[in-house]
Design a protein that fits this description.
222 residues, mainly alpha, 8 helices, globular, disordered C terminus
Length: 222
């Protein structure tokens, strides 16, 4: 870790901690203001944060790039899988370690039951938020277009809101999940060997990619 890393980590910790103060108030506000229109809009956010759709997207980009001989596209697909794997492992470990009860359990915003593996006690952080911001972070950097970035991050924010609106997560859950996805996505694009091709490198080979898929399927949980 260098100085910049520590500043980033401290900022995420401070923002997440501050969000804890507003968890209950924020939940009550959205539970009082549900409408059919908001229900329909929220479904878009839910879908964008679903790991199954994210996996299909990354696999399609990778295979499509290979079929049509577009290295940029196949590398993007590989980066998405890598980012989702790293971010997912991070989120899953924290989830099962902290064992925070979900809002709909009505057990309070500070109820933690450490080392739980049940869905009802895996609120912190939000997996959907992690997925959404991993996707948006990586795709935004790879596409490198202002309008695309605005659209991608708007979808990611919609996912954050949906997780609170649906009473599946607290405000602090989605903030930490989003931070994990965003910064891991940034790191993957910055440090991935595929972004700087080397002669004779096989890091983008089908065998390596599908090994990642196997690890991904064994470890990713929400």
């Amino acid at each position: 870790f260098d100085r910049k890393d520590w500043i980033t980590l401290s900022s995420v910790a401070a923002l997440t901690s501050a969000a804890f103060i507003f968890d209950q108030e924020n939940r009550e506000f959205w539970q009082r203001n549900k409408t059919k229109t908001l229900d329909d809009i929220s479904e878009v956010g839910r879908i964008y944060g679903e790991i199954s759709y994210a996996a299909i997207l990354s696999g399609s980009l990778y295979l499509g790039g290979k079929i049509f001989k577009s290295r940029d596209v196949s590398v993007t697909g590989s980066m998405l899988f890598e980012g989702l794997l790293y971010a997912g492992l991070t989120t899953t470990i924290i989830k099962f370690t902290t064992g925070r009860s979900r809002p709909y359990m009505n057990e309070g915003d500070f109820n933690f039951n450490f080392f739980q593996t049940t869905n009802d006690y895996s609120s912190f952080p939000s997996g959907h938020s992690t997925v959404a911001f991993t996707l948006s972070s990586i795709l935004s950097q790879r596409i490198n277009n202002t309008y695309a970035s605005v659209g991608l991050y708007s979808l990611a924010v919609l996912t954050l809101w949906q997780r609170i609106y649906s009473d599946n997560h607290w405000l602090s859950d989605v903030i930490l999940g989003a931070s994990i996805g965003y910064f891991i996505g940034k790191a993957v694009v910055k440090f991935d060997d595929d972004s700087q091709p080397k002669s004779g490198s096989n890091s983008d080979s089908p065998n390596v990619f599908f090994q990642r898929i196997t690890i991904f399927s064994l470890n990713y949980s929400f």
